Each structure stands twice: as C-alpha cells, then as structure tokens.
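Field reference: sequence -> structure
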Amino acid sequence: MYKVFQYIFDGIITFAPVIGSYPQIKKVIKSKTDVGFNTMRVSMNYFSAFTELLLNISYLKYTNYDNNLDFLNHNSRFFSLVLELLMVLLKIFVKNKYSSNKSNQKKHNKLIFLFTLFHLGIYLPLILVLKFKWVNYILTFFSITINLFSYIPQIHEIIKLKNSKSLSYISVLLDYFGTFFITIYMLSMKDVYFLTLLPVIMSNVSCLILIFTMIYYDFNYEVLYYSNKLCNYISDKSDKFVNYIKSIYYKYYPLKEDKETQSLINNSDDFTHDFELV
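Structure field:
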C-alpha cells in the first residue's frame, strides 16, 4: 500500500509542471496576446529549469539505487525538470506566435540559444566526464540567483500595468504549490542533496511574493476596505476594553469622583454586554 502512495506522489511531482503551465498557455492562446506575460520571466524560467536539470544530472553520478522504485523516488524531481523545460519551450513558442513585441522576443530567443549552447559546451562535459564537485556549487549558486530574481520582471510588469489580468491565477498557484510539495518531497528523502534543494526553496519564496503582488493590485480596493474595517473594529473594541478595565479599577479603588469616572462605571455593564454578543 505504501508503494502505491509513493508512486502516486512521485507522479504528482513529475507532472506538476504540465498541470501548472497549461492554464497560462491556454489564456495566452485564448486572448491572442502575451501583453502582461513578461518575456524576461519566461526566459529566466528556462534558465532556471535548465540549470537545475544539469545540477540533478550531476547528482545522479553520486547515487546508487536499490530498485526501480528507489530510482523513481530519488529522481522524480529530475523527470519533473525535463517536463518543466519542455513546457517552458512551449510557452516560448506560444509567445513567439502571439507576441506584442516581436523584436524583444527575438532578442530573448537569441539569449536562450546562447545560454543553452554555453551550458552544453562547458558544464555538461564537466559533469559527464569529470567529477568536479565545485561545478555543482557553481550551478547551485547560479540556480539560486536565477530563482531569486526570476519573478522580479513579472512583478515589475504587474506594478507597471497595475493589474495581473494577463496572468493565470491557477497557473501561479499551481506553480507555488508544486514547488512547495517538491520541497516537502525532497526533505522527506533519506539522503537529500541539499544543493538541489536550495533553488526549489528560493523559487517557492519568489512565487509567494508574486502571488501577494497579484492579489494587491487586482483586489486593491477590497484589501484596503476590509483592512480598514478590521483596524477600526479592533480599535473600537480596544478602547471599550480599556474603559472597562478602568471602570473595574475605579469600583474597587475609587479616586476623586468626577463625571468621567462615574461615566466609566455606569458603562461597564454595557461593555460586558457588548463582549457577550461578540
């Protein structure tokens, strides 16, 4: 029974990028424009997935497996990255077709090509032929840096447009929960390779910041309205509570009686009644 659940969990981890990317791709195709869907964000998403994939390939060299299930358990993230890379390539294809800025998209296409060529020509041979662990440290640092800054272009785009209507909430939320559960999955492994975990954690934090930015600009009025309402409610109840405490104190330790003190004493019963209703 445990193996069944393990296979299900591994399957969710593996296919999470496909499930998370589909709503965003569908939204761009339906609207026939990529306005608001930041090109730099997609490019950095490609850089991140490609770098993490190389890092996981390097990690495979240092691990021995007991059976197929053990191999799948340790490498669900690897297969997930392969699918994520394919889905990012699909996003790039869709953006090329519906791009609102063709020249900018072409520049990013060239940048992606040069990035891929550089990594395949430099890092991949070092990983496959040699066992230099310092290569892993470089890839980890590079991946963490990309994941840290990858959401900034999209956040800037939202602030500039003052809305995130071009983005799919479903995609962003699935992206967040996907990276969250991948973090849990990797932490549950017996011999987790910490260098492969750090980029995932950084991606999760950055995605959470993006979600809060989207909510703020899309529901700005509602957030401010209910925040003010909550603050006023807390302030009102705090004032009543302070007056109630004062009235109790004056009952047992009467000072020079004045109108304010007498008013507090008379209103103490009303305040108690208010709290009982709440």
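Note: Confidence is low (pLDDT under 50) at residues 273-278.
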